[in-house]
Design goal:
The structure holds two protein chains of two kinds. By secondary structure, chain A is of the alpha+beta class. Chain A has four domains: 72 residues, no CATH class; 210 residues, no CATH class; 302 residues, no CATH class; 194 residues, no CATH class. Chain B has a three-stranded antiparallel sheet. The longest helix of chain B has 26 residues. Chain B is globular and about 55 Å long. The chains are: A alpha+beta, B alpha+beta.
């Protein structure tokens, strides 16, 4: 062992003194030769003879020097250097080939790594809680809200009797005002039960967690700061503990700081965490109106299904007590994993993106395999020559291995660069709805995986020629004709075409869907409309009168728009929904009760110019009037759909409706056109409009001011903010043109369509390159045959057509395969499409046509080259 | 013993190694002098081909049994001198002992009728 080390050390030293070593060997042998000469001369032989004789005895000095020299080198290192130099030389001689391989690798690796990095935090990466697979979101799911929710009374029941290891609750986030320095600032507060952090397995970074004492109804107020808020407002000073923060005019003692990596389970932004202080002693009717979100940790070994089954009877019991009877049939129990709750909206898009990019990677690998195989065949003669000169099989294999590795490395480096650039692009372009994008980073295990995949493909197909014994016949016949064993390569091309078709079909479906989304009528005109949303601080406006006068003051100030225009006030704005009430609540005077299965009805509180501001046509009757606002009347405007549903062909005008089972009757004065009020893709809900009264008790905490004006957005924003801060300085106001708001609903479909379109384009390019490569190769191989055929009498056009026919056959096979694939995958994409069938024949037809045309174009050059073969020259090359 | 027995080239190579080591036992020599020493001491029976000598010398040097140094020869030429290392000396003793044991054994067998 030490012998080997010693020799390795000596050889390593010799590495740097290569030339010195050669000179020494030269000298040593010449010295020996000279001495032998002298000996012979001394023995009486004449000079010339002595020299020849000694040389003869010496034998082949060259091979002797070689033998000695070799001992002093690391053979494999020298070979590697030789192989690398050879590879680089070959690359420089064939820049086109090198470029195509490296670019293909870069695209395949780069795109798949980037997309995987984006979807990994959504689909695969662990949530930042220990044993996150045990965490679930539980609650009632009903038409009231998109996500499951709970109420305090049920929460107490389920916590006591439920099958969970731990059940915890949080109130939905509210904006609260904190005194930072001297000025009030709106921050995000969440109120949670004492076991919240424990359930998620998180401990505070500093200080302590809440305990039962803190959560009692009248306990002194304590709070936990989020890491970000602590850094921003307290400079990350540990002495913040124990200080008091004024939140909503109440002093809150800071008892701890949350860890930096902490996330709220529904991914809301958090600044301060407060105890919820739920009061079990309150009567059930009070607690059943108090809205919560509940999460739980499952006990060991219990699945979600099992937990749901065990909870169901308890759910039924509390639902009977807490859910209003008219809604009881519409709510059901939901227990689902926390991850599911978080990514539900983006799950399908994420899988779609991942699927498309993997298809692209496959196409890239097929391309590389094809290219390597083509080159392998072309180099058969070269390898035969090298074998004839004395290279062993091992040596040849090592050379091809080195070559493949170098291609792989180059492609890998290019791929990493592409991935990084693509990721930056994605992050910049991605819509806000793509959660956790800030967590997307180049994941090295994925990079390694993609690299290994491409390298594997390159290796496998690059090594093919070295694996078969070099044949002497290959040396003799420079133009090996006929069966070049291209069936595999043809299959690869067809596979690429099939993948391309699936990608193209997917992209065109998404694009058509996007087009429909852009085009469809909204029911109102968002152009020239700017909206300003605001929410007043709860703690200062607990009194309903205070709220009413706040709205009045806002109206007074904001209706004087500089430059004129229409102003209206509402509590919500389309295309979003508004407040909802059960349809079955409606009672019509002098009519039988309405059907009880009707779902929800939306309503908005609006000022009279609402309809004019949004340009919603009034179909029958009239809009609200200013004079009605101080009267004791209750005018009502129905949407066309609701009017139809309630009254059929009867005129709704003048009818009296009790909206809330309250005994208070509203009179229908008009019918407005239907608008999109459930996002852009879902069918609209029936809706009615109520008039905002000057001294109404029913106003909520938030509102939207609507301006139809020619003023530009910036000027208006400044003016609105100025006016509103005069009334309530710390209240945040979000000003946005309505068109922008509406467009946000199209952001995600646009993003997904763009990316899939990009992949489809790249896939198409790769298929074209692959087809071109194989056809060129075949034409080159069959030059002699073509020459023969032309000499016998075939016309150039016939030859060209034959090549095109080949192209057509392979493409056709690929198209059929692709169509089959598209049908198979159609169902999975349905959730992403809007008013477009997944088997939409137009999209499929267009995609197939595009592919066939591209194939014909790709085959153009090889086929015209074949047509231009001069039979004389071709036949001469024996 | 086993592998060396079946490989005649190997036997000869090892024997040459041993002879070279012995040649260098007393003092450092250059390659030509080593060949001369072996030729003359064996009374011209054993003649070392250069093609075998130099590869052997380099091999022994790489193994660490010899050290080399460039010096000036008797006739004022630049020459590479080899000498035994401590490990080389030990190796020589072992090989010599083994060789004598084997030679004695063979002689005993051949002496029987």
């Amino acid at each position: 062992m030490s012998e080997w080390l010693n020799s390795a050390w000596l050889r390593a030293k010799a590495l740097f003194k290569r030339r010195q070593l050669d000179r020494d060997l030269e000298d040593e042998l010449r010295f020996h030769l000279a001495l032998r000469e002298e000996k012979l001369k001394a023995a009486g032989v004449n000079l010339e003879e002595a020299r020849y004789a000694s040389r003869r005895r010496f034998g082949n000095s060259f091979s002797l020097k070689e033998a000695c020299r070799e001992m002093w080198t690391f053979a494999w290192l020298e070979d590697l250097g030789q192989d690398m130099r050879y590879t680089f030389r070959a690359m420089r001689k064939n820049p086109g080939f090198t470029a195509v391989v490296v670019v293909t690798l870069a695209v395949g690796i780069g795109a798949s790594t980037a997309v995987f990095s984006v979807v990994d935090p959504l689909l695969f990466r662990r949530l930042p809680y220990p044993k996150d697979d045990q965490l679930v979101s539980v609650g009632y799911l009903g038409p009231v809200d998109n996500n499951e929710f709970n109420v305090t009374s049920s929460y107490f029941d389920w916590r006591q009797q439920g099958p969970f290891k731990s059940l915890t609750a949080m109130r939905p986030g509210v904006g609260c005002d904190a005194m930072i320095g001297d000025s009030p600032r709106r921050i995000n507060c969440y109120a949670v039960t004492a076991n919240f952090l424990q359930t998620f397995g998180i401990s505070p970074l500093l200080g302590r967690d809440f305990n039962h004492e803190d959560d009692r109804p009248h306990a002194p107020a304590v709070g936990l700061l989020s890491y970000g808020f602590w850094q921003r407002s307290f400079g990350g000073d540990a002495k913040a503990l124990g200080k008091t923060l004024i939140v909503d005019d109440d002093p809150v003692q800071i008892i701890g700081v949350l860890p930096k990596s902490f996330e709220m389970p529904q991914l809301g932004e958090i600044d301060v965490m407060l105890p919820a202080r739920l009061d079990a002693s309150l009567p059930r009717s009070a607690n059943s109106g108090s809205f919560l979100r509940t999460f739980a940790r499952l006990p060991e070994g219990v699945s979600i299904e099992q937990a749901r089954g065990r909870l169901l009877p308890i759910f039924n019991a509390s639902a009977d007590k807490d859910v209003p009877p008219e809604l009881r049939k519409e709510v059901r129990l939901v227990v689902r994993s926390l991850r599911d709750r978080q990514i539900h909206e983006v799950k399908l898009s994420s899988w779609m993106l991942l699927g498309s990019v993997l298809a692209l990677l496959l196409a890239a690998c097929a391309n590389i395999a094809n290219l390597m195989l083509a080159r392998a065949v072309a180099r058969r003669q070269e390898l035969a020559m090298r074998a004839a000169l004395g290279a062993g099989r091992g040596r040849l294999m090592r050379q091809t291995l080195t070559e493949s590795m170098i291609f792989g490395l180059l492609g890998g480096v290019a791929g990493s660069g592409t991935a990084w650039a693509l990721l930056r692009l994605c992050v910049k372009l991605a819509p806000g709805g793509m959660l956790r994008l800030e967590h997307a980073r180049i994941d090295f295990r994925v990079l390694l995986f993609a690299l290994a995949g491409s390298l594997g493909a390159a290796l496998l197909f690059g090594m093919a020629p070295a694996l078969e014994s070099p044949q002497a016949e290959a040396l003799a016949s420079w133009h090996v004709t006929g069966t070049a064993r291209t069936l595999f390569r043809k299959a690869l091309v067809s596979a690429q075409v099939a993948i391309s078709l699936v990608l193209l079909a997917g992209a065109s479906l998404l694009l058509r869907s996007l087009w429909k989304l852009q085009d469809q009528p909204l029911g109102f005109q968002p152009e020239h409309v700017i909206t300003a949303s605001f929410t007043m601080p709860r703690h200062r406006y607990q009194n309903a009168e205070a709220r009413a006068s706040f709205f009045d003051e806002i109206e007074e100030r904001l209706k004087r728009i500089p430059g004129g225009g229409f102003f209206a006030l509402s509590d919500s704005i389309p295309p979003r929904g508004s407040m909802g009430r059960p349809y079955s609540n409606l009672r019509i005077a002098g009519h039988p009760p309405v059907a009880s299965d009707g779902g929800m009805v939306e309503f908005r509180w609006v000022t009279p110019s609402y309809f004019r501001a949004l340009a919603i046509p009034i179909l029958t009757g009239r809009a609200f009037e200013e004079s009605e606002r101080a009267s004791g009347e209750s005018p009502l405007i129905l949407s066309a759909a609701l009017a139809r549903r309630l009254f059929g062909n009867e005129s709704p005008l003048g009818q009296q409706i009790d909206l809330d089972v309250s005994g208070h009757w509203s009179t229908v004065v008009g019918v407005a056109a239907d608008i999109k009020n459930n996002g852009l893709t879902d069918p609209p809900d029936p809706e009615y409009y109520r008039l905002r009264m000057h001294n109404s008790q029913e106003m909520g905490f938030s509102g939207v001011a609507i301006f139809r004006t020619a003023l530009d957005s910036d000027t208006l924003t400044r003016w609105v903010r100025k006016e509103l801060s005069a009334i309530e300085p710390s209240m945040p106001v979000a000003v946005e043109p309505l068109e922008q708001r509406v467009d946000r609903f199209r952001e995600r479909p646009r993003f997904v369509a763009a990316l899939v379109g990009l992949f489809a384009g790249l896939g198409l390019l790769m298929a074209a390159v692959g087809l071109y490569g194989v056809l060129s190769f075949l034409v080159a191989r069959q030059t002699r045959e073509i020459g023969v055929r032309m000499a016998i009498g075939a016309r150039p056009v016939d030859i060209a057509l034959q090549i095109q026919k080949y192209a057509g056959i392979w493409t056709g096979t690929g198209v059929i395969g692709g169509l089959a694939g598209s049908f198979a995958l159609a169902r999975t994409i349905r959730g992403l499409l809007f008013e477009v069938s997944p088997n939409d024949p137009v999209s499929l037809l267009v995609s197939a046509t595009v592919l066939l045309v591209t194939a014909a174009l790709a085959a153009w050059v090889p086929s015209s080259r074949a047509a231009r073969v001069d039979p004389v020259i071709a036949l001469r090359n024996e | 013993m086993g592998e060396k027995q079946s490989n005649p080239a190997g036997i000869l190579r090892d024997t040459l190694d041993m002879l070279i080591l012995k040649a260098l036992k007393r003092r450092p020599l250059h390659g030509y002098a080593i060949a001369e020493f072996i030729e003359q001491t064996s009374e011209e029976v054993l003649r070392v081909e250069e093609g075998a000598l130099y590869p052997a010398l380099h091999r022994l040097e790489l193994r660490g049994w010899l050290d080399s140094e460039w010096g000036i020869s008797e006739n004022n030429r630049r020459a590479k001198y080899y000498r035994l290392t401590a490990v080389g000396r030990k190796q020589l003793a072992e090989e010599a002992a083994r060789w004598i044991r084997m030679a004695t054994a063979i002689a005993r067998v051949m002496e029987t009728a």
